[in-house]
């Protein structure tokens, strides 16, 4: 029997790997609905859906290796990062899906949520006030009008796989939908600022770097307490707190 490997597990969802099959267990079936629908629409490589029996979705492993891991230097080539940029551009140029995704939240509502989270980070003593204040200032650039695109919505570096400098698969589509395309680019390069130029070279469009940096701050500020409460360490070298410190 193949070994069962726990890829990620917390109170909301878990992903297990058994051989070349991933089993995704999610208490929220709406997220699985979004994921399956998105993988059927996008013009980029995605995992094959093997079967679905709520609350479990079985998908095939994609070939290749992830671009990297948050907190560690990416060993992927510049060409692989450029290929990832080209794939993301293909996604963003696709016809809009019917749903709004994780990258498509109302700017005013998101700014209000960010203000509440910043206050709690300082009040609870999680982060120093000057670090939070500076990153809240940087974050303001993200709250501007944007043209919706087909976005992944959670395009972490571990979700893009390449082999021989070609994208072989993009995984975890539960936040996909209409959204801000620069949010995807920022999420993919979070903690890997040195790779942004290679990604944009493949993306092939003018990108407002201030907005990218703003999204790094927004995403990091919003997830720190959640990560700490679900068994992750945002204070680890190269992770979210270091991303915030880099803006000082």
Order of helices and strands: EEEHEEEHHHEEEEHHHH
Shape: globular
**What strand order characterises the main sheet?**
1-2-3-5-4
> What is the third-level CATH name, the topology?
Aminoglycoside 3'-phosphotransferase, Chain: A, domain 2
- Helical content band: 40-55%
Which CATH architecture would you pick?
Alpha-Beta Complex
Q: What portion of the residues fall into strands of 2 or more residues?
A: 15-25%
Topology:
Elements: E1 4-9, E2 13-18, E3 21-26, H1 29-41, E4 49-53, E5 56-60, E6 65-66, H2 78-92, H3 107-123, H4 129-139, E7 149-151, E8 160-163, E9 166-170, E10 177-179, H5 181-189, H6 196-203, H7 209-229, H8 240-245
Could you walk me through the main structural features you see in this protein, from its secondary elements to its overall organization?
The chain has one domain: Aminoglycoside 3'-phosphotransferase, Chain: A, domain 2 (Alpha-Beta Complex), CATH 3.90.1200.10. Helices cover about 40% and strands about 20% of the residues. The chain contains 8 helices and 10 strands. The strands form 3 sheets. It has a 5-stranded antiparallel β-sheet with strand order 1-2-3-5-4. The chain is globular, with a radius of gyration of 18 Å. About 35% of the residues are buried.
